[in-house]
Amino acid sequence: MNELPQQLVNGLLLGSMYGLVAIGYTMVYGIVQLINFAHGEIFMTGAFGALTIYLYVLPDGTSMAIALPLMLIGAVMVAVTVAVGAERFAYRPLRNAPRLAPLITAIGLSLALQQAVWAWYPGATSALVFPQIEGGPFEIGGVTIQTGDVFLLVAAPISMAVLAYFVMKTRTGRGMQATAQDPDTAKLMGVNTDRIIVIAFALGATFAAVGGVAYGLKYGQIDFRMGFLLGLKAFTAAVLGGIGNIYGAMIGGVVLGVAETLATAYIADIPGMDQFGSNAWADVWAFVLLILVLLFRPQGLLGERVADRA
């Protein structure tokens, strides 16, 4: 029990990363009812975009105080470019196709992005070292926060606040709400739904890029496969919070992160399961939780917000 506050903070940080990626899933699904399974790879390309800025654009020895904002801009630019390109050339032609077609396309795009980074990025055949923020770790009330987690601790609430303001207070945000509720009526009211969909993909990619930078700072390395499993967990978070519900995506991410961290930390206390080691179960709990949610509350914790377009 002495470790409980530390584990809760660890789970909160991990869940915030899941939530940042889950926002992209839930925004796109809420508007076009598409599960973009390539979103995990958009998260991955954002991390590689940040590393590219650090390695190939900035001079050697640039301090992280200067490098990090520029890396974040590079991450967002790469992730948004990939996401908007995917929407324009892969998903838009299939918008009126049977739902299985864009789903298969998304899976194929996910694999294509992985292989493209593996084949073309220098050194990507193995894990690449990600630059770190100097200093720390920091101890607050007996809880240790690693230096790499400070960025996530600041970025996640700021990202949610900006998103909430954008969706609720801006004209484009209200257009997104209208398109999600009824795209045909939104068109009749003068809303450019194609533009709204592109913005939804771009916003989701922006938050995924922030998550990609946070991942690199937290774990100290990135690789071309990093988006696959984390993307699945982020999708689980989106379903857990209520697919189509933006706030539910972040809450679902936090719940999932805390549940996974606590289960992993205390699994050795369960008789007969300690022989496998707690880390062996780390990736199991997300999908156990997903199954339970689908069985007992399929609409998610905050409820699904998707209009019936049947």
From TrEMBL:
Broad class of the protein's primary localization: membrane
Protein keywords: Amino-acid transport, Cell inner membrane, Cell membrane, Membrane, Transmembrane, Transmembrane helix, Transport
UniProt topology in membrane: Multi-pass membrane protein
InterPro entries linked to this entry: ABC_transp_permease, BCAA_transport_permease
Source domain of life: Bacteria
Signal peptide: none
Keyword hit for Acyltransferase: no
Subcellular location: Cell membrane
Positions of transmembrane segments: 12-35, 42-58, 64-86, 98-121, 150-168, 196-216, 280-296
Family: Belongs to the binding-protein-dependent transport system permease family. LivHM subfamily.
PANTHER family the UniProt entry points to: BRANCHED-CHAIN AMINO ACID TRANSPORT SYSTEM PERMEASE PROTEIN LIVH, HIGH-AFFINITY BRANCHED-CHAIN AMINO ACID TRANSPORT SYSTEM PERMEASE PROTEIN LIVH
Protein's name according to its UniProt entry: Branched-chain amino acid ABC transporter permease
Organism (species): Streptomyces ossamyceticus
